[in-house]
Amino acid sequence: MSASTAGPNPDNQIPKAPAEVGVSGSVTDLTPYLPPVDSEYDLEMTDLKGPEEAPAPVEVIFDCSDVEVHYGEHRAIRDVSLSFGLREVTALIGPSGCGKSTFLRCLNRMNDLIPGAKVGGHVIYHGQDLYADEIDPVQVRKRIGMVFQKPNPFPKSIYDNVAFGPRVVGMEGDMDEIVERALVRGALWDEVKDRLTENAFGMSGGQQQRLCIARALATDPDVLLMDEPCSALDPISTGRIEDLMAELKERISIVIVTHNMQQAARVSDKTAFFTVEMAEDEKRRTGVVVEYDATDTIFTNPSDKRTEDYVTGKFG
């Protein structure tokens, strides 16, 4: 992958908005210059309010362009160009096998761990190309956490599960405080604070998934990737995860892969719809992005017929 020309921003600072420009001069009474009410002029009321201020642009944390992934000779996705904003939830939807999870793994270099996988294009994070030669994948995964489809706690205590990441990356500070803070953020502290030394396998499925979220949050990431985090959970546990996502969004950005259209509509700010291109021999499938827009637009007024057919259940 070639390095991006965008400059690095190691401090991840949000640019400050420019100060307002003051207007000098005094207000003049224009009454003497207006025609009298009973004159031949018809006075019309005009809107004296100034133009409404445009909403502040959202800071882009990920800017992906022309991303493609090969597994050996097979091209799994091609020409994926998406950008994700600060403190937004973005949903990736589409039929099975269209490359949603493959693309998600590009965002924190998890595809590096798959033999034969090769990533092309640019994945720019806070101005830095994540696939540049000098980038350490471990540090990438510290800043960009991930939660998988099925709960995958380690065969350790609840405490050691959460402490695992901070220990690996060498985080400084009181480990008890780090673990407690992560479990609080994962909406699990009150349920497990009296049994932190117990094996994590003794927890329910929903608790295990929230433990995995807390484990991902323990290294203080500013992005959380979620690969169908609720597919193996019951509706009550799913609701808790969605509530947790709404809370986490106040501090971090989230990118979620989901097959649940209702979930995408409930939790996300933006949605990208992926689909599959079939080769002429109908044996090779390549994932492409069809449409990317605000979630309300994707579900109520999509610009592409393929998107409309998918979100309305006509295929997929």
TrEMBL record:
Pfam families: ABC_tran. Residues 62-301 form the ABC transporter domain. GO terms for molecular function: ATP binding; ATP hydrolysis activity; phosphate transmembrane transporter activity. Keywords: ATP-binding, Nucleotide-binding, Transport. Residues 1-25 are annotated as: Disordered. SMART domains: AAA. InterPro entries: AAA+_ATPase (IPR003593), ABC_transporter-like_ATP-bd (IPR003439), ABC_transporter-like_CS (IPR017871), P-loop_NTPase (IPR027417), PstB-like (IPR005670). GO terms for cellular component: membrane. Residues 1-12 have a biased composition (Polar residues). Transmembrane segments: none annotated. GO terms for biological process: phosphate ion transmembrane transport. PANTHER family: ABC TRANSPORTER I FAMILY MEMBER 17. NCBIfam families: 3a0107s01c2 (TIGR00972). This is Unannotated protein. It comes from freshwater metagenome.
